[in-house]
Amino acid sequence: MPTDLHPVVRWLRRLAQNIAQGARGLAIEAVVVGVLIVFAFLLAFVVVALR
Amino acid sequence: MLLRPSPTDLRLIAHDLGRILAVVAAAGLLPLGWAIARGEWAAAGWFLLMIGTAAVPAAAAEFLGWGSRRQRVDWSHGLVVVALTWLVVPAVGTLPLWLSRHWGRWLDTFFEAMSGITTTGLSLVQDLDHLPESVNLWRHTLQFLGGQGIVLAALTFFSASGALSMYQAEGREERIFPSVISTARFIWLVSVIHGVVGVTVLTVDGILVQGFQPVRSFFHAINVFMAAFDTGGFTPQSTSIAYYHSALYEGVLAVLMVAGAMSFGLHHALWNRRRGLLQNLEVRTILTTFGILLAVTIVGLGTSGVFTRAAALTRRGLFQVLSAHTGTGFSTVSTTELSRWSGLAFVGITVAMALGGMSSSTAGGVKSLRIGLTVKAMADSIREALLPEGAVVPDTFRQYGTQRLTPRMAQSVMAVSLLYVGLYLLGAAVGYAYGYPLDQALFESVSASAAVGLSVGVTAPGMPVLMELVMILQMWIGRLEFVAVFALFGFLASLAVGE
Amino acid sequence: MRTVVAFSFLAVLVVVPAAPAKAQAVDVSELDQNPLAYDGQIITIEGELIGDYGERGDEVWVQLNDDPYTENPIPGGGVPAGGNQGIGLRIPVDIYDPDLWGPPGSARYRGPLVRVVGRFRYHAAEASGETFVQVTDIELLDPARPLPTGELGTPGRTGIALLVLAAIIYAAARYRARPPRG
């Protein structure tokens, strides 16, 4: 990171980087929940159909 | 022979507790601000009293300067401070609860505060739907404080022992300070980012989909965010998450609960695009147990005949299992209905609660790493017995790199797992002795010990005092994973009989 | 397709006039204990509207409580008498009148007391498993009334005194810890 930037600009850049990293984490967590929903629905569908 | 602690030891502990009370006083500013903004003047007075009560000893500790001669952080001293913190903070935190008159006796407010700080979520509040918003916010703030703080405590004091040797990589074997501060910063960063995104999405959802007023929507959002991300389980209204009647809201909370039950090591790995996470023992264990218990619960519910459509069954089944396994304690069915979930559904939910989330997360329970290591240790010994003499069974496992499962580590892991089983049985025995059905007594005991908060109705105003005390003890011990509590008992013993 | 079915089902529910003669008077506890016995039945239930009015297009979701606090909420001088008991209501907008009813119940208001007639639905398949009362008729028994929010009082004044004391002690600590001059 260039050091001649204004501290506020540097801070904002770091913040943006953190948010981008965090968004990646959140996206993966959402995908996990999505996979769980699909898995649970398929299971529920089979159980309800077989009953 | 036990060594009696010196006056300097006691001063150091008092000094640290003073610092912690300063944090409590600062945290109290949040509900105080809300009370003033919303014109809840009586409640504002209760918070001023609590803040003042916490601030005086905090300032006195600074004045006496007992912490200034500290050379280095002593391991057992740290553990004693942690154990005491989890008693002192709820005790001070009861003040506004008690003054609000929404709890039957003082012990109920201590139960509530302990349930909050340990991120359990069992509640003895009465007429929650008329509770001042600021007091409600304080209940949830306690969960946030406990959730954020316990992680720090866990990282600071527990991570370098037992099964959690993975965090030693950060060079925290003796001088814990430099890396702990950067770890703490990362934890706060993860929490703030989840907080900003979570509260924004929930507030917008509340306004646009549920049709709430903006201020109320924000109020709901900030409370349920703190309870979800810190796997707490308190809710602002009496009907828990069923109050919102919204699949979308439940979905957002599901993401936050998953995030809360993930170890911060895993958060770090995800943020930094580390590969091969699915090979980690803990990730594999939690995905396996989750899949199995979800299947068990859905088959149990599906065959009971309550749900006739797959969509309804998925929504209710998944949410309760997720809430149980992550140690949150939110529910979208009533307590009465949950108590009727028998057979496989009961087994699925109870075992999910008992297992809990990942280590170094805010979830409670035995925790996935211990489950994975216990299974591995048992499988290894079976393999050793079956293979010809002299055959070598590899004792390595993957957890952010290859690690060795030493006999000592296996022993410590199994000892803690066994202690949890003992804690679950203790509460079940006490409940059964008081005349509750065994299944209900066991459910509630596991819920308290594993810091979950789901209830089948045993936790209720007017419950027997001894049982309430046992549950408070279970929440406290279960949350601190035994070690700190044992250290405190040892410390007290050395005070009494040491030389 | 499913949406169309769901909407036509709702439309039928809304259009079919309430039949007070057949409606059974129940309370929330009874519905909670024996939900299957009342599923799909027309019921009458009385209580306090509480929490939030969730205005969602052509209907409003709100919780109805029928516990001891509907008459005597704790902030209004009531005494603790157990937990709350509530159930969700779905009210068509054409019979929703917040101006007449007043705000829903909270620490600041005892919410409006109402008597509703509607069809009880338990894990309704057409609403992805929601449990609620589909309201067809609502009668206002007593509009919302404000509850006292109190004043700072003795706890507040004591708290301020303690804070001043803490500030003095802290200032003294800083003064003592100042670096020596020169």
SSE topology:
The complex is a heterotrimer of chains A (51), B (499) and C (182).
Chain A: H1 7-50
Chain B: H1 7-27, H2 29-37, H3 41-64, H4 75-99, H5 106-117, H6 133-158, H7 177-208, H8 214-229, H9 247-261, H10 264-271, H11 281-304, H12 310-325, H13 335-340, H14 343-355, H15 368-386, E1 396-398, E2 402-404, H16 407-433, H17 438-449, H18 465-479, H19 483-497
Antiparallel strand pairs in B: 1-2
Chain C: H1 2-15, E1 24-25, H2 28-33, H3 35-38, E2 42-56, E3 59-65, E4 86-92, H4 98-101, E5 109-110, E6 113-124, E7 130-142, E8 145-146, H5 153-176
Parallel strand pairs in C: 1-2, 4-7
Antiparallel strand pairs in C: 2-3, 2-6, 3-4, 5-8, 6-7
Number of strands of chain C: 8
Give me the Rg of chain B, rounded. Answer: 23 Å
**Judging from the principal axes of the Cα atoms, what is the shape of chain C?**
elongated
CATH class of the largest domain in chain C: Mainly Beta
Summarize the structure.
The complex is a heterotrimer of chains A (51), B (499) and C (182). Chain A has 1 helix and no strands.
Structure description:
The complex is a heterotrimer of chains A (51), B (499) and C (182). Chain A starts with 6 loop residues before the first helix and ends with a helix. Helix content of chain A is 86%, strand content 0%. Chain A has 51 residues and is mainly α. In chain B, 67% of the residues lie in helices and 1% in strands. Chain B has helices spanning 7-27, 29-37, 41-64, 75-99, 106-117, 133-158, 177-208, 214-229, 247-261, 264-271, 281-304, 310-325, 335-340, 343-355, 368-386, 407-433, 438-449, 465-479, 483-497, and strands at 396-398, 402-404. Chain B has a two-stranded antiparallel sheet with strand order 1-2. In chain B, helix 2 packs antiparallel against helix 3 (41-64). The model of chain B is unreliable at 153-178 (pLDDT under 50). Chain C has two domains: 2-146, Nucleic acid-binding proteins (OB fold (Dihydrolipoamide Acetyltransferase, E2P)); 151-182. Mean pLDDT of chain C is 88; it is low at 9-20. At the B-C interface, helix 3 and helix 12 of B face strand 2, strand 3, strand 7 and helix 5 of C.
